């Protein structure tokens, strides 16, 4: 009788021990799972921050470039006496200054274009991330989107010549007189997170991807009557759009801001 009771107690202890080992193993696994998920969430948040930051910085470079073109063109605009559908008229004394100002502005354009790409490296370094983790999937929204155009110039004596890079034609929303840019840029950031296991780091990491999409939009009320009557999308599509009552005034309301479409996460499980 006593031996049977003793045997029953041993079996119960064995069952309890097995159950405790199972529960302990389960808790151990859950602990590592929670820890890995927390690490992945942290890295994903950093990836999204980097994607958003690099994208909005590249869009801001475009905005600054467009604003600078409009601002610098002011020195050219002051040289015109008047304009018509065929071209513009300047004083003979201002002819050399017009050519020089046009060349100066044209030389500045490659600098704006180069900054759009280099800013990605600057932002990645500032966030202590590798530049190689950022992939520019689409950058149409970050291009300046303007083209320097030649124009027929004449002076009061009747001298006439075609001068290059006098005004800047926009390449967006060509079907809409007051349109704003529609092209988007998309940046992708990839992060690799090694999984922690009981034996250390697993060889099969999580591959995390974050995406940011956005574009440059107008920073004026496009429905305002004055903007609708005088606006030209910030930049003209054709030379006659540069004119207001015979006065050369091409860059009206060249105000823009960057807008993100929202981040998209992609969690690549091993």
What's the helix and strand layout?
Layout lengths: L1 H76 L2 E5 L2 E4 L4 H32 L7 E6 L6 E9 L5 E11 L14 E9 L2 E2 L2 E2 L4 E13 L6 H6 L12 E2 L2 E2 L7 E5 L3 E5 L2
Parallel strand pairs: 2-4
Antiparallel strand pairs: 1-2, 3-6, 4-5, 6-9, 7-8, 9-12, 9-13, 10-11
Helix pairs in contact: 1-2
Indicate the overall shape. Answer: elongated
Mean pLDDT, rounded to whole units? 83
Helix content: 40-55%
Rg: 32 Å
Strand content: 25-35%
Q: What's the total helix number? A: 3
Order of helices and strands: HEEHEEEEEEEHEEEE
Poorly predicted runs of 5 or more residues: 264-270
Number of strands: 13
End-to-end C-alpha gap: 57 Å
| Helix and strand composition category | alpha+beta
Largest sheet: 5 strands, antiparallel
Task: Please describe what this structure looks like.
The protein is α+β, with helices and mostly antiparallel strands. Helices cover about 40% and strands about 30% of the residues. It has helices at about 1-75, 95-125, 225-230; strands at about 80-85, 85-90, 135-140, 145-155, 160-170, 185-195, 195, 200, 205-220, 245, 245-250, 255-260, 265-270. The strands form four sheets. Strands 3, 6, 9, 12 and 13 form a five-stranded antiparallel beta sheet that branches. Helix 1 runs antiparallel to helix 2 (about 95-125).
């Amino acid at each position: 009788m006593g031996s049977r009771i003793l045997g029953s107690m041993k079996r119960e202890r064995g069952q309890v021990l097995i159950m405790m080992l199972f529960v302990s193993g389960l808790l151990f696994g859950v602990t590592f799972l929670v820890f890995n998920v927390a690490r992945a969430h942290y890295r994903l948040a950093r990836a999204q921050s980097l994607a958003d930051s690099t994208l909005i910085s590249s869009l801001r470079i475009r905005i600054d470039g467009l604003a600078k073109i409009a601002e610098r063109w002011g020195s050219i605009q002051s040289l015109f006496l008047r304009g018509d559908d065929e071209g513009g008229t300047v004083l003979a004394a201002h002819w050399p200054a017009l050519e020089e100002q046009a060349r100066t502005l044209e030389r500045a354009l490659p600098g704006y274009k180069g900054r759009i790409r280099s800013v990605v490296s600057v932002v990645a370094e500032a966030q202590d991330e590798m530049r190689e983790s950022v992939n520019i999937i689409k950058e149409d929204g970050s291009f300046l989107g303007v083209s320097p155009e030649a124009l027929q110039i004449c002076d009061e004596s009747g001298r006439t010549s075609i001068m290059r890079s006098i005004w800047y034609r926009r390449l967006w929303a060509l079907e809409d007189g007051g349109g704003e840019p529609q092209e988007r840029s998309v940046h992708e950031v990839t992060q690799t997170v090694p999984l922690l296991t009981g034996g250390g780091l697993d060889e099969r990491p999580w591959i995390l991807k974050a995406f940011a999409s956005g574009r440059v939009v107008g920073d004026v009320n496009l429905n305002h009557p004055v903007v609708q009557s005088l606006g030209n999308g910030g930049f003209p599509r054709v030379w006659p759009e540069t004119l207001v009552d015979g006065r050369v005034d091409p860059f009206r309301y060249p105000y823009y801001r960057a807008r993100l479409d929202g981040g998209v996460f992609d969690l690549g499980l091993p």
